[in-house]
Design a protein that fits this description.
The chain is built from 2 helices and 6 strands. The longest helix has 11 residues, at 52-62. A hairpin with a 6-residue loop joins strand 2 and strand 3 (41-48). The chain is an alpha+beta fold. The protein is globular. The chain has helices at 14-22, 52-62; strands at 2-6, 29-34, 41-48, 66-67, 70-71, 73-76. Strands 2-3-1-6 form a 4-stranded antiparallel β-sheet, with helices on one face. Strands 4-5 form a two-stranded antiparallel sheet.
Amino acid sequence: MNIYVGNLSYNVTEEDLRQAFEAFGQVASTSIIKDKFSGQSKGFGFVEMPAKEEAQAAIAGMNGKEMNDRALNVNEARPRADNQHGHGGSGRARTGGRSRY
């Protein structure tokens, strides 16, 4: 089961996440999402736990728990919507090559 972990302190490492969640069972992987330009944590990440029962126990046990002075927001990860607006492109209206502004 893939678990979303939000409200992470920027100095929490993937190893910190692994250790915290291993208290509830086997952890297959951890990842902290980082800004692609600066490398700075975006303040959230994911933990993959193969056993659903252990993952649910981890969610219950870690949600609201403080880690580095931040109360964690932990729940089952939802599938990522690649295109949330229902259309492709830059989100700008087509103007025939001329700017309307």
